[in-house]
Design goal:
The protein is an alpha/beta fold. It is built from 8 helices and 16 strands. The strands form 4 sheets. It has an 8-stranded parallel beta sheet with strand order 3-16-15-10-9-8-7-4. Strands 5-6-14-11 form a 4-stranded antiparallel beta sheet, with no helix packed on it. A two-stranded antiparallel ribbon has the order 1-2.
């Protein structure tokens, strides 16, 4: 049986439903010797800020049971360097969709980045709203529904590409935030971002991370991701890029059953840079076992009790 793994969201065609999660794959160069980006349906670049950023001081990665904590702090060369040099190189070397991720501290920064990135060959833009709004006391943009709706609406005015809003799980109701992003004009949603966590060295009695807290990712967060993806899929009509603890083809299938159209690999790539090959093989085997000809046919088909 021919297995069709193609999925289309927001008018963008993905040859398979697996992409990389922002912040885990750099700009692709670190993984080139292991597996080609062309194996992926899409590649989400490292998070970009308006100006170059050095990130947080080390240590900024801490291993935990079934996951990692990170407080890298968005180290990146800045949006202009990406637009002028990195994105053209990616477009020349690879035949896959590139999703540019942007993170700002003000509405104006987000709008400026959307304008710059809209002129590149990136297929879609992903807006990280877990960033601190420096004009409003440092509260993250993504924790208040009115702020999310306003930010999304303003950025859409400057965005010529499909706009993905990346939701934070560190909220009371992710569905309400999703509805706010939809009301603001988002074309798609991605979730979940990392959960805020902390680890302490019992010998020094100090936090392991120099920044004290960090974002938890990896297998430990997958049940939360599945639940939130399902809730959001029931609350809005937007396509969802699902992520959070995907370590196998079965995990990817689970997120798609919950409502994700596309699934991102992140922390898994630190343990196996070639994970995409196994995930695709396992998804194909699942399709064969259940006589599924098109992978898109399983999206949101969980049978609730």
């Amino acid at each position: 049986m021919n297995k069709n793994m193609e999925v289309s969201i927001c008018g963008v065609n993905f040859k398979n439903p697996i992409v990389t999660a922002s912040g885990t794959f750099g700009f692709g160069e670190e993984y080139d010797e292991y597996v080609s980006l062309n194996e992926y349906g899409g590649f989400t670049a490292k998070g970009l800020t308006r100006m170059p950023r050095a990130g947080n001081p080390p240590p900024r990665i801490a291993e935990t049971p079934y996951g990692i904590l990170n407080s890298v702090g968005l180290q990146n060369p800045g949006v202009e360097q990406f637009a002028e040099h990195i994105m053209p190189d990616l477009a020349r070397k690879y035949d896959t969709n590139v999703i540019a991720n942007m993170a700002g501290n003000t509405v104006e920064e987000y709008c400026e980045m959307a304008e710059i990135l809209s002129e590149t060959e990136a297929a879609m833009l992903e807006m990280n709203i877990s960033c601190p709004n420096v004009k409003h006391g440092g509260m993250a943009f993504g924790t208040d529904a009115d702020t999310v709706s306003h930010l999304t609406a303003e950025v859409k005015k400057h965005c010529k590409k499909p706009l993905i809003v990346k939701l934070s799980p560190n909220v009371t109701s992710v569905s309400e935030i999703a509805k706010a992003a939809e009301a603001g004009g988002a074309d798609a949603l991605s979730l979940i971002n990392t959960l805020l966590g902390m680890a302490i060295d019992i010998n020094t009695r100090r936090p392991i991370l120099a920044n004290n807290t960090g974002g938890l990712s990896g297998p430990a967060v997958k049940p939360i991701a599945v639940r939130m993806i399902y809730e959001v899929s029931q609350a809005v009509k937007l396509p969802i890029i699902g992520m959070g603890g995907v370590m196998s083809g079965a995990d990817a299938i689970e997120l798609m059953l919950a409502g994700a159209s596309i699934v991102a690999l992140g922390t898994a790539l630190f343990t196996d840079p070639c994970m995409i090959l196994r995930v695709k093989d396992e998804m194909s085997a699942y399709m064969e076992k259940y006589n599924i000809s098109c992978i898109k046919d399983i999206i949101g088909t969980v049978r609730m009790n």
